[in-house]
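ok so I'm stuck.
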Amino acid sequence: MHGNQHGNQNFSHTYIRAENDENIVVEIAVTEREIKTKQNWMVALCVFIALVPCAITAIYIKADIEIASWQAFVNPIDLSALLWLGVTYVSYRRTRTKRAAWLFALFPIAFVEPVLLACLWFSSAYPHQDTPRHAEALIVCPGAKQTKWVKFEGTDQLSYQIEADYPASSIVSCISAQLKEKGWRPLQEDFWNPGLPSSHVRGWTNFVDATVHPEATIDLWAAEWESEAGDIAWYSLRYVYPPGDRHTLAINAGLIPANMAKEDDQDPPAAEVT
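replied:
not stuck anymore, here's the structure
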């Protein structure tokens, strides 16, 4: 009798132990499944964030959003790349798995745009000494051809041709808008002939050049802009026909430093006309 009771007690203990072991196995399986699910989500998150810098760049290009020079290293593109690096590092530190380590292979994708931005900033901030830097007041409009940059009697000068029907309103607007954006003020009177309205006021003029044979008709738009420092930017737009027509526009422009502009009361020095 006592032996049977003792045997029943052993059986109960064995059953309870087996049941406990089974519960532990189930709990371990559930825990491992949860951990694996979290790891999968973390991997997916890292992959998603790695693509965010490229996505933001595409949005900026589509919306024509410019990044100012002071934002070269602090902008949504760079910040999203750094976010990817932080999340990936934390994921690897927590799991120490090969799959987490492989996430670092996404580094070129996440940082390609920030690196390009840094290179663009560096090239603009520290240009190569052999790279010529042209005066910002001399505007080259889209579609220009036969573009020439020269130094003439201490001034920077630009000439080019462009296909634009008379009166070339789009070209005048192109030049005026960019100079206004850069802080240049249009002069209502000819800088070297006070009292004579510039083309900002009177628009185009027309005259005959009898010094050539056959005589040529010239449509002329000429005006100046002045910077806060007193520098003068002058522009001369011409249609000459014959032999040309009122479709091929010749543009000449120059930049005269303030000290030269104040001393010179004659028309600006001009290099060879296009």
